[in-house]
Amino acid sequence: MRIHRLVSVTTTALLCLTTLTACGSGDEGGSVGGALGNQAPAKNGGTDGSGGSDGDGKAGAPGLPKAGTMAKAAQIVNAYGACNDISTDPKDDDFFPGDETYDSKWGVTERGACGKGTRIFMFKDLKTFQTAYKAQLDADRKESPNKGHRGKFLLGQDFAVLPDQKPVIRNAIKPGGLLILNCHPDFNPPTGYRKDPALVKGCVLTDYFED
To answer: Least buried of 19, 51, 158, 181, by fewest C-beta within 10 Å?
Structure first.
């Protein structure tokens, strides 16, 4: 099935933040509109209730957006990159082979594909999702020590996003948006970037991604 949804994004400009790929690189990406609502900025580019780069935020970053439904998640993602046409049919050409492995152990309840490589995963429990990702990363790192050093998933409170386009990621991590789940033991962002504690020991939520 396909859900067609026209998204109205406000023109309120959010604070400028460094891009996902490099600090102050000035890459394209544009500012994100206020589709997530107006959230007051906090220190280090965070939002109220989410803490800053010194890790003083509450575990799990409660300031992250919550979708509730796949349609709403697609609306949120559409603020960062094209996601007007979301498919939840596993037979759709936009689906990635192997994504079904996230369903059980990761607590994923619904998968969607926006086209152009961007996928959305709805899950029922944030901690279960983070735990599964860390377990997979720990196993992968036995053969590839650098695996996951840049993080992988963009997280909301009840959904995760795997974008395939860097401009989407750059927009998504601006204030009021999503954060990157990073569980690599050597991850240490420069000062001024967020490093909020996740719900799983050894993982953080950050707005920094080294390309």
So the answer is: 158
